[in-house]
Design a protein that fits this description.
single chain, 500 residues, Thrombin, subunit H, Pdz3 Domain, 6-stranded antiparallel β-barrel, 9 helices, rod-shaped, hydrolase
Length: 500
């Protein structure tokens, strides 16, 4: 069979040139923008495959198409492109929602178009919102993301309260069970007694402590600590001579007085009496608290006493005890070549230690009855602290000597003019005369070496220290009867006392 040649195939006649009418909406959507002539932008070319076919864009995801596509029933609605800012042009009516940002290349079949907010400034929502504002979210909307019924919120609150109550009950039960296992104790707290009756140790200490000072003496690397008692508003204080002895031998020594409130001030030595271990210092203070001076002669063994001072440097220390004995002669070797110390002491069992020296011994009324001076220690054990035997200079003797030191700067004691030693025999007990000073009071009265003095005035003499204190209790120039034993025979002579 012969195939027809190409020249034999029928040819299609040219189609007539017909241009159907263009839909104005299509022209507005796809026509050239106003003011644009010629071809479209040649820089844009759709993607093509190797065989020259245009690659179409894949369909939009179903979720996006559902979110941004036309709602059901609006498939025939065409979003129009505005011709300019004044309207859609071509005589078309202005859309209800108009995009002020024109896009001449927008696809009218696109699901959505960018535009201004649905509510413009000045359009309220009718719920009392100001123009240009929008209703604020409620608490349920913020917390739960949607509205919640008030009844549901109330039920939720009740459930929370119930859970909290149950948790509290469980915690209480666990705590109560733990207490049952470890045991419970009801501790009764009693209010501390604040009433301090007059005459109590606390009341006396409160009144006396401001008048008792701590005395510190420092000279280079050397120093000492003792106590003192303020006895005069002018700033005079009584203390022991051995407390401030360093200041009398070394001029560069510094004396500091420390009061119970911590005030520190300088002090100067006014005068000393090494024979009775007393001294007076002047403290640089205005209107100090001074102690009330009592009568040591009214004391009886067993009376309550209180010692106040700075034992071992511990300021404002208070100890209590009783009067153990009266008229207990005490003698000690003098320091730095000074004469022996002898005084008629009050013995007490109130604890006294080093540093109490010069402090106050007061009675149950808080009155000064003695100046603490020394203690008896146990030499066998080497114990250097209090063993319940302390000695104080009677306040009567101390104040008498202090007045003389303040007025004269020195003290003269009555003297009998002999050296004596203690003796104790079957026939006599007293102070035996070792030697008699030529021309002295004893020599003029006819007292001889070997005589044993047993009494001076009305004071019994049982040893040499007691003879000294009996004589010093008198004044120079006094005529005093002296009872003695000479060769076994008692004898009484009158002696006119002299001065040392």
């Amino acid at each position: 069979m012969n195939q027809p040649t190409p020249s034999d195939e029928p040819r299609l006649a040219p189609r007539p040139v017909e241009r159907p009418p263009v839909d104005p909406a299509q022209a507005a959507a796809f026509g050239r923008p106003r003011g644009v002539e010629g071809a479209f932008d040649k820089l844009y070319a759709p993607a093509q495959s190797a065989d020259g076919k245009i690659i179409a864009q894949p369909p939009a995801p179903e979720s996006l198409a559902e979110a941004f596509g036309r709602p059901p029933g609006a498939e025939g609605v065409v979003l129009q492109r505005p011709a300019d800012d004044s309207g859609p042009g071509d005589g078309q009516p202005e859309p209800a929602l108009w995009s002020r940002k024109t896009d001449p290349w927008r696809d009218p079949g696109a699901p959505a178009v960018l535009g201004v907010p649905a509510l413009e400034a000045g359009n309220g929502d009718g719920d009392g919102a100001e123009p240009g504002t929008f209703p604020m979210l409620s608490l349920p909307e913020v917390v739960f993301g949607r509205r919640v019924k008030p009844s549901a919120l109330a039920l939720l609150g009740a459930v929370c309260l119930l859970i909290g109550a149950v948790g509290g009950l469980v915690g209480w039960w666990i705590a109560d069970t733990g207490n049952a296992l470890t045991g419970q104790a009801t501790i009764s707290e009693a209010q501390a007694g604040k009433e301090r009756a007059p005459g109590s140790v606390a009341d006396i200490a409160r009144r006396v402590s401001p008048a008792v000072i701590s005395i510190e003496v420092v000279s280079g690397q050397a120093g000492s600590v003792g106590s003192g008692v303020m006895v005069d508003p002018a700033g005079y204080a009584v203390t022991n001579n051995h407390v401030i002895a360093l200041a009398t031998t070394e001029p560069q020594a510094k004396i500091t007085a420390v009061f119970s409130d911590g005030t520190r001030t300088e002090a100067k030595v006014v005068g000393t009496d090494p024979k009775t271990d007393l001294a007076v210092v002047k403290v640089a203070v205005a209107n100090p608290v001074v102690i009330q001076v009592g009568k040591s002669s009214d004391l009886q063994p067993g009376d309550s006493v209180i010692a106040v001072g700075s034992p071992l440097g511990l300021q404002n220390t208070v100890t209590a005890g009783i009067v153990s004995a009266l008229h207990r002669p005490v003698t000690a070797q003098g320091d730095n070549g000074e004469p022996p110390v002898t005084y008629d002491a009050i013995q007490t069992d109130a604890p006294i230690n080093h540093g109490n020296s010069g402090g106050a011994l007061v009675d149950a009324t808080g009155a000064l009855i003695g100046i603490n001076s020394s203690i008896r220690t146990d030499g066998d054990t080497g114990q250097g602290g209090s063993i319940g035997i302390g000695f104080a200079i009677p306040a009567g003797d101390a104040i008498k000597i202090a007045r003389l030191l303040i007025s004269n700067g020195q003290v003269k004691h009555a003297d009998i003019g002999i050296n004596a030693a203690s003796v104790s025999a079957d026939t006599s007990e007293g102070a035996q005369v070792l030697n008699v000073a030529d021309g002295g009071p004893a020599a003029r009265a006819g007292i001889a070496e070997g005589d044993v003095i047993t009494k001076v005035g009305d004071r019994m003499v049982r040893n040499a220290p007691e003879l000294t204190v009996a004589v010093r209790a008198r004044n120079a120039g006094d005529v005093v009867p002296v009872q003695l034993v000479r060769q076994g025979r008692p004898l009484v002579v009158n002696v006119t006392l002299g001065s040392d």
